Each structure stands twice: as C-alpha cells, then as structure tokens.
Amino acid sequence: MSTTTEPAAPPTDGTTRSTTGSTAGSTADASTDPSLATPPRLSLRTWADRAAAGLPAGVRGPAVDPRGLRTGVVHLGLGAFTRAHQAVCTEDAAAATGDDRWGVHGVTQRSARVAEQLAPQDGLYGVLMLGQDGAGAETASLRVVGSLREVSFPGRDTARVLAALAAPTTHVVTLTVTEKGYRRRPDGTPDVTDPDLAADLAALVDELDAPASRPLDDAPAARSPLGMLLRGLARSRRADAGPLTVVSCDNLSDNGHVLGGLVHAALTSPPVAGRAGADALAAWVATHVRFPSTMVDRIVPATTPAHRNRAAALLGLRDEGLVVAEPFLQWVVEDDFAGPRPAWEQAGATLTHDVAPYERAKLRVLNASHSALAYAGALRGHATIAEAVADPDLHALVRALVDEDVLPTLVAPDGMDLPAYRDEVLARFANPATGHTTVQVGMDGSQKLPQRLLGTVADRLAAGAVPAASAAVLAAWVRWVRATSAGTAVVAGRAVPLDDPLAPVLAEALTGPEEGLADRVLGLRQVVPPALAGDDRLRDALRAALAALPDRR
Ligand SMILES: NC(=O)c1ccc[n+]([C@@H]2O[C@H](COP(=O)([O-])OP(=O)(O)OC[C@H]3O[C@@H](n4cnc5c(N)ncnc54)[C@H](O)[C@@H]3O)[C@@H](O)[C@H]2O)c1
Ligand SMILES: O=P(O)(O)OC[C@@H](O)[C@@H](O)[C@H](O)[C@H](O)CO
C-alpha cells in the first residue's frame, strides 16, 4: 500500500511576481513591521513579494505556477478536506508531469463563506501541517497551494458552475460533500422528498424539456450536490463535451458506485423518468461517464483562529482559507476513468482495479475507531481525539473493537499488515497537534455509523459471533444522542447540542425511558438495516452495553 507523508518542506518559491488578479492591498510585511496589527492578506501578489524576500524554514510555495494552470477539475464541496488532500495531490501531479490542464474549480455548497475567503486570495491558501517528531515534540510546516484556480457558490454562481461542468476542458469532477450530502435513503435510492434535491430535479426536468435554443443562464440556483451534478451532466451531453469521470472522495463505503447508482436511479425514476430527454441522458451517462470508487485518508480538523494565528506567524501573511492537516496522506483510486485525468499516481496515490479492500479496512479500522473515541470520549469530557485515545479505558475499547470485531471481517489489501495498520492509526490519533475534536468527529452519527460500524456488526453476526465491542460503541452513540438532546452534554466547558440531520427523529426515538431503549435503537430504520433490526443477539448485546454505560447527568 502506497502512502505519503508530506515532508516538512524546504523553502522554495513556486511562483513569480504577479501584476494581476489580487484584491489584497499592502505588500508590507507584519513579520518585519511590528507596527502592523494585521499582516497583509495572502494573494498571488503578496505571496510573490513574501517569497522574493526569502521564506523561513518550513514554509514553501505552490509546486507549480498557479497562473499557468487551466481548469480541468470541478470539485463539489469546497470544505477543508479537499484543500488538504485532492488539491495537494493534483498540484503535485501537475508539478511532476508539467501537465497544465488540471487547475481546480472549487464549488462550495450551502454557504458562500469559503468562496469569500478564497476569492480575495486568488485561490491561494496554506496547508498547516502539524505533527510530531520521533521524540514526541510538535512539528509545524506550511505549504501554500495554488491548484485552486476558481471558486464558486451555487447560490450566486449556478450558471457558471453548470458551464464549468459542461466545459470540454473539464474531464474530472470530484466531490467531498459529507455523508448526508448524498441525500440517500437507507435502501440506496435518492431521497426525492428532500426539498433541495426535489427543487434540483424540477429544474433538471425543465432544462431537459427546454428547446436547444433556450438560453439556460437564468437557471435556478442548484441546491444539492446530486442535483447540481445531474444538471451539469445534462449540460455536458447537450454540449457534446466528451467523457467525464466523477470521483467521490467521501467516507462512504463503495462511494463511486453509490454515487453512480444515485445518478442512475434519479434519471430512471419519477419525477425525471419518462420526460423528454431523460432516457437519452441516462443512456449518455452510461456510455460517457464513470464513477470510480476511492479511499481517501488524511486527518483534517476544522481550522480554528489559533491555527490562523500560528500560520500568520509562520507566513507573515493572513490566510482566511487556511486548512490544517496531519502529515499523513493516502489516496487509493479505482482506475476506471472515462477520459484524461491528473497523474495522481505521480503524487503518491495508488491507482488500482479494486479499491474495496482498502476502503473497507479504512472505514472499519480508522473511522469506526474514530467514532468510538468521539462518543465515548465526549461523554467523559475529552475535548480531543488525542485525549480520548490516551484514556486507558477508551484505548481498550478501541483495541477490542478492532481486534475482536473488525479484523476478522477484513481481507488485507495488497499484503497490508492489518495489526500494524491498526497501530499506525492509533498513533495518528494520539498526535495532539491537530486538535481534532471529539465533537467534530461525532457529528452526523446517524449517517456515519452505518458506513463505519454496522457492516462489521452484520459480518460478525453472519459468522456466528456476537460483536460486543461494536455494541458498546453503538451504546456510546445512544448515550451521546440522549445527552446532547437533553442539553446535558458538556465538553471543554461548553454545552453541546445534537448535530445530526436526523436530530428530531433521534431525539423522539432515543430519549425517554430506559425500558425498551435497545429496541427503539434497532427500530431506527433510517440507521439500522432490517437484517440487524431483528437480531436478538445484537439486541441482547446492546442491552448489556447500555446497562454498562448509564446516562451522563
Ligand atoms: N476532514 C477529514 O479528516 C476527512 C478525511 C477523509 C474524508 N473526508 C470526507 O470529506 C467530507 C468533508 O469533510 P471536510 O473536512 O471538508 O468538512 P467541511 O465541513 O470543511 O466541508 C464539508 C463540505 O460539504 C458540504 N456539505 C455539508 N453538508 C452538506 C449537505 N447537507 N448537503 C450538501 N453539501 C453539504 C459543505 O458545504 C462543505 O462544502 C467528510 O464528510 C468526509 O466524507 C474528510
Ligand atoms: O469527515 P467525517 O465527518 O466523515 O468523519 C470524521 C473523521 O472520522 C474523518 O474525517 C477522519 O478524520 C478521516 O476519515 C481520516 O481520513
């Protein structure tokens, strides 16, 4: 298995002095002028000035000149993760090959915030890498990334996004829109009752019905990732723009095939199926579009003001688009592309014909342990994953989860040493530098646990074993839902509310008397598949786990 650990970078200048593009003002440098309260904003111009003045150790610039990149990738879901993962690999691939076709057009989803952070910076942002050296001392380095060449917000820029999706120069669409962003029902079909997806499907039908001569520039704002993608595919077909590959980079089991299935189902069922052009679009997608699966791995916590201050001290520039990451980075991509792609394998990615064993190992070992530490840790008041994994009881819980429940369900990919992988994951969790919080990892449990935990549970039950540690993790989630719903969850001195798209359903089902609680958990049909809901062994194990972990008051 090929993984990358980004080195603390030598100081290099990847850019040349720019005279265009920046809305940032002064080029004065706060790191040398203490009279300046705030350093100037990162942009092509200020970065070039900074680099020309000499960069401190541990700071490096874009691997390619951003101004020379054309847009070939559209990314839906411009959150923190893609900026620290795919955008980095895409830039490194361009640097390794000299291929300038792979600038990225990043599209935010629900808010304009990230677009507004990045536009004044000409798309530049830093990745602050926080790790530990062999002696446990904290290491920090910063890399400015330049592969993000355009940013859009659908609420304002839908016509621009649809045009980008349908441009003949766009060969790849990537996504990181969270588990809930897929609007997927438990049976795998798209939730067409979701108001955002329904609005997009109505717009799609209208656009499919429109005569070819009708300009589509006044198209209503796209409201869901799936709807935006479908509308972009319709435009792409209409423009005869050539083949397209859509790469899901979310923590979903079988992510590419899940997304391809949602696209197919949306085009072949009401309200779209049967409309003029729908069948032709479905046939065009089947021929011209691929949906490879991927396994993505890098711990990227939400950026805090403290991170920004730290980066500003290193860089001498203020970076509102900063992201934070551990040094580790891994990407395994199914080699199933409809057309050209960045040479990601030259940036450390593994291109393979079978991603499933990698994806399964990562979701079941890393992500399931992460969720275990998040719920059990937050219940004990641990603010960070690093604090939680240092708690001997929780360390033991994770070891039991992985050793007794997860590892027997895995086939090691590519000769991988699974116990060594477990140990490496636990060591990464123990890195306190990133400050990844239990509350962040614990959000959206209803969407995450089916991906991370319930597959293990199903496999162990099928093998005749009772997954007691998995039941303990499920119990910790239930206690967390009850505490956050009741307003009694306090972490780092702050009350934490329930953050989950199914919050009302969860609060209704999981609060109330202890009597029958395990039945109510297993009766959550949006979370627990029917085959598990009726399993008495799981019910008994969950009852025992709930009895061992009373409500926190
Ligand atoms: N952060 C990590 O460590 C990490 C690592 C591996 C994979 N991932 C994957 O990337 C995803 C995003 O992580 P991030 O760190 O960028 O998070 P983030 O909060 O920074 O960004 C989330 C993105 O998803 C969009 N989004 C959120 N809810 C949505 C919804 N209901 N509908 C449509 N779009 C929605 C947001 O607008 C934003 O663009 C994760 O959910 C996971 O699947 C993250
Ligand atoms: O990003 P999420 O919200 O799906 O999950 C939270 C974490 O478990 C996750 O982001 C991990 O840090 C990541 O999957 C590591 O690669």
TrEMBL record:
Mannitol dehydrogenase C-terminal domain sequence ranges: 354-518
What is the source species?
Cellulomonas marina
**Gene3D superfamilies listed in its UniProt record:** N-(1-d-carboxylethyl)-l-norvaline Dehydrogenase, domain 2, NAD(P)-binding Rossmann-like Domain
- A Pfam family matched in the record: Mannitol_dh
What terms describe the molecular function in GO for this protein? mannitol-1-phosphate 5-dehydrogenase activity
Q: Which InterPro entries match?
A: 6-PGluconate_DH-like_C_sf, 6PGD_dom2, Mannitol_DH/Oxidoreductase, Mannitol_DH_C, Mannitol_DH_CS, Mannitol_DH_N, NAD(P)-bd_dom_sf
E.C. code: 1.1.1.17
Low complexity biased stretches = 11-35
Provide this UniProt record's keywords sorted from A to Z: NAD, Oxidoreductase
| Reactions that this protein is recorded to catalyse | D-mannitol 1-phosphate + NAD(+) = beta-D-fructose 6-phosphate + NADH + H(+)
Is Manganese there in the keyword field?
A: no
Please give the family membership noted in the entry.
Belongs to the mannitol dehydrogenase family.
List residues of the Mannitol dehydrogenase N-terminal domain. 72-345
PROSITE patterns under this entry? MANNITOL_DHGENASE (PS00974)
A Gene Ontology biological process in which this protein takes part is: mannitol metabolic process
In its UniProt entry, what is this protein called?
Mannitol-1-phosphate 5-dehydrogenase
Q: Where is this region: Disordered?
A: 1-42
Kinase as a keyword of this entry, yes or no, is no
